[in-house]
Amino acid sequence: MQNSQKGFLVSDRLSKIMWSLSLPAIAAMVLFGLNAFMDTVYIGQLLNETALAGVALAYPLTSIMLGLGTWAGTGAGNLLSIAIGKDDRDTQEKLLGNATIFIFVSSLIFTIPGFFAAEPFIRLMGGSGEVLEYGVEYFQIAMIGAPFWVYGLSLNFIVRGEGKMKQAAVMMSYGLGLNLILSPLFMGVFNMGIAGAAWGTNLGMMVYCIVGYRYFKRGRASFPAKINAVAYDKEVFSSITKLGFPGFIMSIMGLIQAIVVFNAIVRVGTESDLAFFAAANRIQLFLMTPLFGLMRALQPVVGVNYGARKYDRVKKAFNLFTRTGFFIIFPFWVFMMVFPELSIRLVLPDMAFTPTDIFHFRVYMIMLPVLPVVFMSLTFLPAIDQPRFASLIGMARQLIFYVPVMWFLPGILGIEGIYFGATGIDLVVTIFLVAAVWWEMRRMTQKAEKEEDEVPPLKVS
Predict the structure, then answer these.
(1) What share of the chain is helix, strand, coil (3-state, %, to 5)?
(2) 26 pLDDT above the threshold of 70
(3) Mean of the pLDDT values across residues 357-363?
């Protein structure tokens, strides 16, 4: 089974591999994005702008849970892909035991203090008054389900690391589909308010975990998976930590970005400005979900081919996936830029928009067609065992750019500074990532030439 999957990834036509892996991955990520987006719609429609603002402050904090799951899952998934490419059975057997240790230790370290320090955390995000109350309620309930969020996401990333995107998508659909049903039911029918959205997500994630566990328990993995093993191996654990760190850094840096941006909005704007930015941000994230799917599909293609020393296929895969991402996102971007108010009214149906609001929305979305380069680069670098560039650029984006820009620019330009600053920073980061990928591709070419020179000539008898 493993040889069949590896043979498919290293030998078949790249376009066939891309669509075979990408379509279910895109479907899964669209469903994932739809959950976050529809939670925003439900809150905006069934509750009010204040509740939406409170959840907007809590949501970046809950993304730490997703960051921990991404850390363990992408680290283990990248390591698994490379190990499959190298036929390294020993690493494959030790993978789940070390990933499990990482998952539970990291999730508990965050969950316990997160629950009891919910109010200071939401205040740090800029919350006060009724917005603070909504944010604390949502965040504390989310903390109760945090271990399920981390475990379920991690297992799903490992399945993707096998190259089984369809299976991973089906597993994800159970939990996310349940959340889409339960959240409006709890909020609207049972009048649970903001707590209904959080509990709907928690129960969905619990089902997500159960489905993932049963997959490995029933022996459906294409590698020797020991789901109940809890065994520490220094080398494997270290590799998971290293290869998954860029994904976690992006989540943490995203939190820093949210803290800086939301505090800047609170400092120079109003509660309506905060709700508007939250709506624009959720719309952007939802439109980016096909790119998340392409990222997940690109990872095993690059990882397995890199492990098998198929360097030319690695480079061709990156270029193919990046072009495809652009062509997928471009028509949606055009529609949104032409009809921006129609897009925003899905989330904020009763808010009166000014021409300045519409202009800010367009500025915020202007970089969307370029983001396929960013997303594929952030997947490509760890998948070739070079996570340091992705980690450094992720940290630089927030600490070197976002913190000073969002501190000074809104003070000069007002709310407009938020949108111009965010767009300018994304442009700079894109340039840095393109340079990093070019450097690694050049290094890969040199490595391939060196390996060819080291192959002994055939003896002629």
Answers:
(1) 85, 0, 15
(2) yes
(3) 89
Report the first-to-last Cα separation within the chain, whole angstroms.
Answer: 39
Burial 202-233 (b: 16+ CB within 10 A, else e): bbbbbbbbebbeebbeeeebbbebbbeeeeeb
| Widest Cα–Cα separation across the chain | 87
Whether the CB-CB separation of 36 and 200 falls below 8 Å is answered with no
Please classify residue 283 by burial: count the beta carbons closer than 10 Å to its beta carbon, then call 0-12 exposed, 13-18 middle and 19+ buried: buried
Distance between alpha carbon 26 and the CA centroid of its chain, in Å?
A: 13
The residue type of 385 is D
Higher pLDDT, 40 or 377: 377
Neighbours of 21 (CB within 10 A): 27
Sign of CA dihedral 284, 260, 193, 210: positive
Least-confidence region, from 23-32, 63-72, 296-305, 389-398: 389-398
b/e per residue 125-146 (b: at least 16 CB within 10 A): bbbeeebbbbbbbbbbbbbebb
Residue 326 has pLDDT above 90, yes or no: yes
What amino acid occupies position 31?
L
Using an 8 Å Cβ cutoff, are 368 and 337 in contact? no
Among 329, 363, 366, 359, which residue's Cα sits nearest to residue 341? 359
Amino acid letter, residue 335: F
Element containing residue 345 per DSSP (H, E): none
| Residue 279: Cβ within 10 Å count | 25
| Residues near 297 by beta carbon (within 8 Å), at least 6 away in sequence | 18, 21, 22, 25, 26, 160, 165, 321
Q: Choose between 459 and 87: higher pLDDT.
A: 87
Instruction: Write the single-letter amino acid at 64.
Output: I
The pLDDT, as a whole number, for residue 5 is 62
Q: Out of 364-373, 392-401, 425-434, pick the least confident.
A: 392-401
Q: How far apart are CA 409 and CA 430, in angstroms?
A: 21
Q: How far apart are CA 187 and CA 52, in angstroms?
A: 13
Most confident of 6-10, 284-288, 365-369, 453-457: 365-369
Q: How do residues 79-93 score in pLDDT, each as one tens digit?
A: 888 888 888 888 888
With a CB cutoff of 8 Å and minimum separation 6, the contacts of 78 are 161, 243, 244, 299, 303, 382, 383, 385
